[in-house]
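Work Package 3 (structural annotation) set out to generate three-dimensional models for the target panel prioritized at the project kickoff. During this period the team completed the workflow that converts sequence records into discrete structure tokens, so that structures can be stored uniformly alongside our sequence database. As a representative example, we reproduce one entry of 310 residues exactly as it appears in the project archive.
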Amino acid sequence: MHGKEITRRQFIKSTAALAGTVFLSCHAQQASGPKLKRTAVDQVTLGKTGLKLSRLGVGTGSIGGSIQRGLGPDKFNRLIRYAYEQGITYIDTAEAYKTHEMVREAIKGLPREKLFIQSKMSGVPEKPLEVLDRYRRELNVDYIDSLLVHCGVSRNWDEKRKRLLDAFEEAKQKKIIRAHGISCHSLPASARAAQLDWVDVNLVRINPQGAHIDTPAERWDARSDISHVPAVMEQIKKMRKKHHGIIGMKLVGNGDFTKPEDREKSIRFAMQCGLLDAVVIGFKSPAEIDEAILRINRALAERPNGWPGP
């Protein structure tokens, strides 16, 4: 036989190997399938909690809730209903916003199991579980999906507010709440939150312009700028490594981003950083909801596989 000729056995062997390669390649392509189209109103998983919420939430605490309270009951109800009709099921509130009762009226008749309601507790009340029972009455719900320690600023907030942490855990075991966490307003507080297994959910201040985000000062109102952004992102990355749920806020700079290009820049940054599960924005009109959905959808389309990421 000539040296360049191959035997029948060799031919069959090489053909089988080629066929296997083609099969695996095709199988991989089928498995990966078409790229999913991500949107602002997708139901997403909140970290390791397993809880679902819409990627975009409607906030009720703009300027301490005064913006939403200023709408009056009818306009606020229509706003929440409009958000729900678009697919937004996450509603963010707090005792400090004085919007619990407004939320209660706005969600009347909506299926409770489809809503994700997050509230927050300020200070260190003597009997946190009794306060939580009042929250549930004010909201007219059997349970609150996520309850946060409100406005943590100290580096040892978990020690100073241990009564809350213990009560929240007890409430979680009783299924009065489904997850607990913190809303941080300083870098020392965020750094501590990133370390704690107790934290299920982090509500973090984030925008690329550095407006109203965390700083090294243990004050919620410390002046911030773009120089603080890298340190904020570092802590959020640590939270992600711990598989915490992470929700971004201050996407419109506490209302400072009156220029459309600023809102576009901020929303694109939040959507494409790959570190957030969801975001919340305080709205005052259906038009603002429409704009946010449009900008989020556009940002996600630019990086279709970028949410969430390492």
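The chain has a mean pLDDT of 90.
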